[in-house]
Amino acid sequence: MKISNFLLGMTTGLLGGAAAMLFTTPQSGKDFRKSLSDTKDSMNAQLQDLKTQVQNMTDSIKTIKEESKSTIPHFVDDVKSSVNEWKQETTPVQNKLQSDIKSLQSSVEEIQQQVEEFKNRKKK
Predict the structure, then answer these.
(1) Mean pLDDT of the chain, nearest integer
(2) Mind telling me which PANTHER family this protein's record contains (predicted)?
(3) Extents of the domains making up the chain
(4) What would the mean pLDDT of 91-118 be, rounded to a whole number?
(5) What is the mean pLDDT of residues 85-109?
(6) Is 42 in contact with 49 (CB distance < 8 Å)?
(7) What is the phi-psi region of residue 28: left when phi exceeds 0, alpha when psi lies from -120 to 50, beta otherwise?
(8) For the whole prediction, is pTM greater than 0.90?
(9) 3-state helix, strand, coil in the chain (%, to 5)
(10) What angle do CA 53, 37, 8 make, to 5 degrees?
(11) What letter would DSSP give residue 27?
(12) DSSP characters over 49-84
Protein backbone atom coordinates (compact mmCIF):
# COMPACT_ATOMS: atom_id res chain seq x y z
CA MET A 1 0.00 0.00 0.00
CA LYS A 2 1.33 3.42 -0.91
CA ILE A 3 1.78 5.97 1.79
CA SER A 4 -0.02 8.61 -0.21
CA ASN A 5 -3.15 6.42 -0.35
CA PHE A 6 -2.90 5.85 3.40
CA LEU A 7 -2.53 9.59 4.11
CA LEU A 8 -5.43 10.40 1.78
CA GLY A 9 -7.63 7.87 3.60
CA MET A 10 -6.54 9.17 6.99
CA THR A 11 -7.24 12.80 6.02
CA THR A 12 -10.62 11.90 4.60
CA GLY A 13 -11.51 9.99 7.77
CA LEU A 14 -10.46 12.86 10.00
CA LEU A 15 -12.41 15.40 7.99
CA GLY A 16 -15.47 13.16 7.93
CA GLY A 17 -15.24 12.56 11.70
CA ALA A 18 -14.85 16.27 12.40
CA ALA A 19 -17.83 17.10 10.17
CA ALA A 20 -19.96 14.40 11.83
CA MET A 21 -19.03 15.74 15.26
CA LEU A 22 -19.93 19.30 14.30
CA PHE A 23 -23.27 18.28 12.82
CA THR A 24 -24.26 16.00 15.70
CA THR A 25 -23.23 18.26 18.57
CA PRO A 26 -26.16 19.40 20.74
CA GLN A 27 -24.70 22.92 21.00
CA SER A 28 -24.60 25.79 18.60
CA GLY A 29 -21.28 26.68 17.02
CA LYS A 30 -20.78 29.64 19.35
CA ASP A 31 -21.56 27.55 22.45
CA PHE A 32 -19.36 24.73 21.21
CA ARG A 33 -16.42 27.08 20.61
CA LYS A 34 -16.89 28.55 24.11
CA SER A 35 -17.06 25.08 25.62
CA LEU A 36 -13.96 24.05 23.68
CA SER A 37 -12.14 27.22 24.81
CA ASP A 38 -13.14 26.62 28.44
CA THR A 39 -11.95 23.04 28.23
CA LYS A 40 -8.66 24.21 26.72
CA ASP A 41 -8.21 26.79 29.48
CA SER A 42 -8.99 24.18 32.13
CA MET A 43 -6.51 21.73 30.61
CA ASN A 44 -3.83 24.47 30.44
CA ALA A 45 -4.43 25.31 34.12
CA GLN A 46 -4.17 21.64 35.07
CA LEU A 47 -0.99 21.31 33.01
CA GLN A 48 0.52 24.35 34.75
CA ASP A 49 -0.44 22.89 38.13
CA LEU A 50 1.18 19.58 37.18
CA LYS A 51 4.35 21.38 36.04
CA THR A 52 4.46 23.25 39.36
CA GLN A 53 4.02 20.04 41.33
CA VAL A 54 6.76 18.29 39.34
CA GLN A 55 9.09 21.25 39.90
CA ASN A 56 8.32 21.21 43.65
CA MET A 57 9.01 17.48 43.77
CA THR A 58 12.27 17.95 41.89
CA ASP A 59 13.32 20.70 44.31
CA SER A 60 12.42 18.50 47.28
CA ILE A 61 14.45 15.61 45.91
CA LYS A 62 17.45 17.90 45.39
CA THR A 63 17.12 19.22 48.95
CA ILE A 64 16.89 15.71 50.39
CA LYS A 65 19.89 14.64 48.36
CA GLU A 66 21.98 17.57 49.59
CA GLU A 67 20.92 17.08 53.20
CA SER A 68 21.63 13.37 53.07
CA LYS A 69 25.13 14.02 51.73
CA SER A 70 25.96 15.97 54.86
CA THR A 71 23.88 14.00 57.37
CA ILE A 72 24.70 10.39 56.50
CA PRO A 73 28.49 10.67 57.02
CA HIS A 74 27.91 12.23 60.46
CA PHE A 75 25.45 9.48 61.32
CA VAL A 76 27.91 6.78 60.24
CA ASP A 77 30.67 8.39 62.30
CA ASP A 78 28.36 8.56 65.33
CA VAL A 79 27.45 4.90 64.96
CA LYS A 80 31.10 3.89 64.64
CA SER A 81 31.96 5.93 67.70
CA SER A 82 29.11 4.39 69.68
CA VAL A 83 30.18 0.87 68.69
CA ASN A 84 33.76 1.58 69.72
CA GLU A 85 32.62 3.00 73.07
CA TRP A 86 30.43 -0.05 73.62
CA LYS A 87 33.36 -2.36 72.88
CA GLN A 88 35.56 -0.47 75.31
CA GLU A 89 32.89 -0.55 78.00
CA THR A 90 32.16 -4.25 77.58
CA THR A 91 35.75 -5.47 77.31
CA PRO A 92 36.28 -5.62 81.10
CA VAL A 93 32.97 -7.41 81.52
CA GLN A 94 33.90 -9.91 78.81
CA ASN A 95 37.26 -10.53 80.44
CA LYS A 96 35.61 -11.06 83.83
CA LEU A 97 33.09 -13.48 82.32
CA GLN A 98 35.86 -15.43 80.60
CA SER A 99 37.75 -15.63 83.86
CA ASP A 100 34.63 -16.80 85.68
CA ILE A 101 34.00 -19.43 83.00
CA LYS A 102 37.55 -20.73 83.33
CA SER A 103 37.16 -20.84 87.08
CA LEU A 104 33.89 -22.74 86.77
CA GLN A 105 35.44 -25.19 84.34
CA SER A 106 38.28 -25.77 86.74
CA SER A 107 35.83 -26.31 89.59
CA VAL A 108 33.82 -28.77 87.51
CA GLU A 109 36.97 -30.70 86.65
CA GLU A 110 37.95 -30.86 90.33
CA ILE A 111 34.49 -32.09 91.26
CA GLN A 112 34.66 -34.74 88.54
CA GLN A 113 38.04 -35.89 89.85
CA GLN A 114 36.73 -36.05 93.40
CA VAL A 115 33.70 -38.05 92.26
CA GLU A 116 35.99 -40.47 90.41
CA GLU A 117 38.20 -40.81 93.48
CA PHE A 118 35.15 -41.39 95.66
CA LYS A 119 33.89 -44.09 93.27
CA ASN A 120 37.29 -45.74 93.23
CA ARG A 121 37.47 -45.73 97.05
CA LYS A 122 33.99 -47.12 97.31
CA LYS A 123 34.83 -50.02 94.99
CA LYS A 124 37.80 -51.02 97.15
Answers:
(1) 86
(2) GENERAL STRESS PROTEIN (PTHR35792), IG HYPOTHETICAL 17707 (PTHR35792:SF3)
(3) 3-123
(4) 90
(5) 91
(6) no
(7) beta
(8) no
(9) 95, 0, 5
(10) 100
(11) S
(12) HHHHHHHHHHHHHHHHHHHHHHHHHHHHHHHHHHHH
